[in-house]
Amino acid sequence: MWSMLGELALAAPWLLALLFGVLALIVLVSLPLSLRGSEASERPEIIRALADFWRFWRR
């Protein structure tokens, strides 16, 4: 996988930057969408669940 990303970075660095930018945007947008309309008492649990979800994908 890393060699493919290295070749992509050499061939089209703007495409790689766009890919990582879209992934970062997805992570940042998921939090407000998840918290919209929730009760204040539920918010810490939702934030913990999102943190666990994104930590799972980093492995």
Account of the 3D structure:
The chain is mostly helical. The chain has one domain (1-58). The chain is built from 3 helices and no strands. α1 packs across α2 (13-35) and α2 runs antiparallel to α3 (43-58). The radius of gyration is 16 Å and the shape is elongated.
Q: Any key phrases for this structure?
A:
59 residues, mainly alpha, 3 helices, 83% helix, 0% strand, elongated
Helix content: over 70%
What Rg, in angstroms, do the CA atoms define?
A: 16 Å
**Cα distance spanning the termini:** 14 Å
How many domains make up the coordinates? Answer: 1
Rounded mean pLDDT score: 83
Order of helices and strands: HHH
**Major sheet: size, sense and barrel closure?**
none
**How much of the polypeptide forms β-strand, as a percent range?**
under 5%
Class per helix and strand makeup: mainly alpha
Provide the low-confidence segments as ranges: none
Number of helices: 3
Count every beta strand, where a strand is a DSSP E run of 2 or more residues: 0
Shape: elongated
A few lines on this structure:
The protein is an all-alpha fold and 59 residues long.
List the helices and strands and how they pair.
Elements: H1 2-11, H2 13-35, H3 43-58
